[in-house]
Write a structure and sequence with these properties.
The complex is a heterodimer. Chain A is of the alpha+beta class. Chain A has three helices and twelve strands; from the N terminus they run αβββββββββαβββα. In chain A, a hairpin with a 3-residue loop joins strand 5 and strand 6 (84-87). The relative contact order of chain A is 0.18. Chain B is mainly α. Chain B is globular and about 75 Å long. The chains are: A alpha+beta, B mainly alpha.
Chain lengths: 165, 398
């Protein structure tokens, strides 16, 4: 590109286009997937709040015999027909819906869904509700195993409604 | 009357310069002073941008009533508005304003990444977000003329690149403190490699001074940190995967130094030796046991450590050797300030070594007198011999 004005315009548009594409991709992930709900709880009730977000543990409902091995591996959690963790490269083709994630050495499966951004004003109330095991996250899972958080539910209601009650 | 005006008047009175030269120098210095306002403008815009970032963050986090689409829409509108303003000012040769707007634009790009993460509840690491920002903002940063913009970009990029590399090699950072030594080793090696690359590529030339700045700072931190760890007998968790990026970068750096025509063979040998010694310093089991300490060996009559096998003697010896190699390179290349700083640090390390080895002596009156004499002696030796040492290093050649 020899034209300096064209180079400048490209340099200015490049970040905007990348950020817009990123936003579109996340929006698609939200809309295109199938919706699932998972209960959540705190690692430690005193340490759930970190800045502007809640940090919690997702209960995927995996039975111990179908859980993670004791090693750090990339893993897939098959959600249907049978809830079971597989190493990513060993996931059977019969698995209809799955969640991409990883296992750690403590046999815990994580899929990057353990953070929810909240306004500071409602932090203490939401923290207390989750400590009482009233919390769930609503997640959209697409065909490639990517998951996007849709909402935080408190006693089955969207958190925005729950804090008004 | 400013200091420069007083000096110029004195020089004119003494006949060193003519009246015309007085006027020329004075007008040049006043012009320089106006250019120095750049820093003021840059700091003002940086401060304003950070306040803006805080406001965006507060709104994003607290204003529940605003729908996500509106928040994102307002953010993208602001980005487009700023981009249009930069394009207009750059085209109309108002470079100062354009540079200020570029700073605001790249900071807004970073804020946008944060906003997207917040709206979609993305669970990512801070260094991944900054790496994305570094990639998307580099093209526009290269249009900026002022070093402040490049410095801002380099400062964030080097941090993100170092942490991301160690994370990638180690397979997800779990406890940042365990991997910290690998990060400390990689930082100066990567900064130096990018400095040499930036010197070779004309497009990246403006970023080179910022990379060099971070090389010097991070190298000093890396050396001090590992000296404290080895001298103090700190136990270190070592996983070779974490150090892989540092070793590969060290190989790249040695290659770049070997290819650099501006360096004499002596400088190439000195720098290569210093890099290899630093890498060796961070390997826990080659030169160090982690248990043998000369300082405490007097307390244990059975397992007395010899002077040369003790970690707390080897560590300062290695520190001083690395500093010495770099001091000869700096002296030989004519970097006076760096040379003075490095030789001062060598002297300082000798003083600390003295207190490490003879710490008990400082508790007595005679010991304190001896310690004071030792410090004065080292300071005098450094002051009187640094010029001779620098001249000697300049005369060296291979």
């Amino acid at each position: 590109m020899k034209n300096p004005q064209l180079r400048l315009a490209t340099a200015l548009l490049f970040p905007i286009v990348v950020l817009a594409a990123n936003t579109w991709m996340y929006q698609q992930q939200r809309q295109a997937g199938e919706t699932f709900k998972f209960p959540i709880e705190g690692f430690d009730p005193r340490d759930m709040l970190s800045g502007h977000y809640l940090f919690y543990k997702v209960d995927y409902g995996i039975s111990s015999e179908y859980g993670c091995p004791t090693s750090d591996i990339a893993a897939s959690l098959c959600l249907r027909p049978e809830k079971r963790v597989y190493p990513t490269d060993e996931r059977p083709t019969t698995c209809e819906v799955y969640l991409q994630g990883e296992c750690d050495a403590n046999t815990v499966f994580t899929a990057g869904l353990d953070r929810f951004y909240i306004p500071q004003a409602y932090a203490a109330q939401l923290e207390s509700d989750i400590a009482q095991k009233k919390g769930e996250i609503e997640v959209s899972v697409d065909k490639r195993g990517n998951a996007a958080i849709l909402d935080l539910l408190i006693a089955g209601k969207p958190w925005k409604e729950a804090v008004q009650d | 009357m400013t200091l420069i005006e007083k000096k110029l008047q004195l020089w004119e009175q003494q006949g060193f310069i003519t009246g015309d030269q007085y006027e020329t120098i004075l007008s040049f210095e006043q012009g320089e002073k106006q250019n120095n306002n750049w820093w003021l403008y840059s700091l003002l815009i940086l401060g304003s941008a950070i306040i803006g970032l805080g406001i965006i963050s507060l709104i994003a986090a607290n204003w529940v009533q605003i729908p996500d689409s509106l928040k994102l829409g307002a953010d993208f509108s602001l980005l487009i508005l700023l981009a249009t303003a930069i394009f207009w000012y750059q085209s109309h040769y108002k470079k100062v304003v354009a540079d200020i707007l570029i700073t605001a634009f790249i900071i807004l790009c970073l804020a946008s990444i944060g906003l997207i993460a917040q709206v979609y509840h993305i669970n990512g690491r801070w260094y991944h977000a900054i790496m994305l920002w570094s990639v998307i903002s580099l093209p526009i940063v290269l249009f900026a003329r002022h070093l402040m913009v490049h410095f801002l970009w380099v400062s964030l990029f080097i941090n993100a690149a170092v942490w991301s590399s160690v994370d990638l090699a180690g397979g997800n950072l779990r406890n940042a403190m365990r991997e910290l030594p690998a990060v400390l080793l990689l930082a100066p090696l990567l900064s130096a490699s990018l400095y040499l690359l930036a010197r070779r590529v004309a497009l990246l030339h403006k970023t080179s001074s910022s990379f060099f700045f971070w090389f010097q700072i991070s190298a000093l931190i890396a050396l001090i940190a590992i000296d404290i760890m080895r001298s103090g007998g700190e136990t270190q968790t070592f996983d070779w995967h974490w150090y892989l990026p540092a070793w590969l970068t060290a190989a790249l750096l040695i290659g770049l130094i070997a290819l650099r025509r501006a360096y004499k063979p002596l400088n190439k040998a000195l720098l290569t030796a210093a890099i290899l010694l630093l890498v060796l310093y961070y390997a826990p089991s080659i030169l160090f046991t982690g248990q043998t300490r000369y300082t405490f060996s007097a307390l244990d009559a059975v397992a007395r450590a010899s002077l040369w096998s003790a970690d707390d003697i080897r560590a300062p010896a290695l520190t001083i050797l690395i500093l010495f190699l770099y001091a000869i390179h700096a002296g030989n290349s004519g970097y006076h300030r760096t040379f003075n700083l490095i030789t001062f640090l060598i002297g300082l390390r000798f003083v600390i070594l003295y207190f490490q080895a003879m710490g008990g002596l400082a508790a007595t009156g005679v010991g304190l007198i001896l310690s004071g004499l030792m410090i004065i002696g080292i300071a005098w030796f450094w002051y009187s011999s640094r010029d001779r040492f620098q001249n000697w290093s300049k005369e060296l050649s291979l």
